[in-house]
Amino acid sequence: MTDGSAGTGKPPAMYRKVAADLGREIGEGRYGSGGRLPAEGELAERYGVSRGTVRQAMALLRTEGLIASRRGTRRVVIGSPRPQSFGELLSFTRWARSTGEEPGGRTVTVETRPADPTERDQLHLPAGAEIYEVRRLRTLSGRPVMIERTVYPSTVGELIAELPPDTVSHTVALEDAGVLIADAQHTIDLCRADEEDARLLGCRPGDPLLRERRCSTDPAGTPVEWSEDRYLPETVAFTVHSSAASGSLARRPADDA
């Protein structure tokens, strides 16, 4: 962390001292990845400064990429994003467990409706076909990180609709029912949080989210799901391995963790 007072003979501004101390503590792992910093009042009392000075320190830490703000909560430490590789086909649950996190899931809504043109194209459905749309909040060790918006053909959606709302892994539940996911096509880009995203993830409407759109198929090549997953950007990273010897990435199912 740089200090603009270096070489001037003047003591650093108090907000810089607060930021430097907290930055060092973050680097030492005192708060952990995703942990919350002390409240503004506690820090103001510790350093004998105003809350305004503490807020300046927090602004500096945000600028340096060390913390993020969540609406209604204290500042949260940003850890290194956990890479999720497309070189192997892992569900969110299995990927989370492979990183030492405890995955969670809560179904927000389940509804049936006619598929729109994009959904019909992705799921290879005829005009007028019904789909199940399922929205879920996904968590890592209790922290909201992602919203799933998934549509299923009716034969698969009927199975999903019967699951308890707190089912952690829909993928495992489908496997138990004989529905296997063998291949997936991914598209990664950015989108803006809408009102529902903001309410469930604790961000602000319009904040950038990392979006993964994915069409998954079974071993016969029949589409099983068309999903749009929206992640808080500091919670995940994606890695891709490419090779001149292959024109496409190999996908394979992974054993349950």
Query: Share of helix among residues?
Result: 25-40%
**CATH architecture type of the largest domain:** 3-Layer(aba) Sandwich
Poorly predicted sequence stretches spanning 5 or more consecutive residues: 1-11, 246-257
Distinct helical segment count: 8
Strand content: 25-35%
Distance between the termini: 39 Å
Widest sheet: strand order?
4-5-6-9-8-7
Largest sheet: 6 strands, antiparallel
Oligomer state of the chains in this structure: single chain
Computed structural class: alpha+beta
The name of the CATH topology of the largest domain is Chorismate lyase
**CATH homologous superfamily designation of the largest domain:** Chorismate lyase-like
Order of helices and strands: HHHEEEHEHEEHHEHEEE
Please indicate the count of domains.
Answer: 2
Number of strands: 10
CATH class category name of the largest domain: Alpha Beta
- Average pLDDT confidence is 82
Radius of gyration: 22 Å
What general outline do the C-alpha atoms trace?
elongated
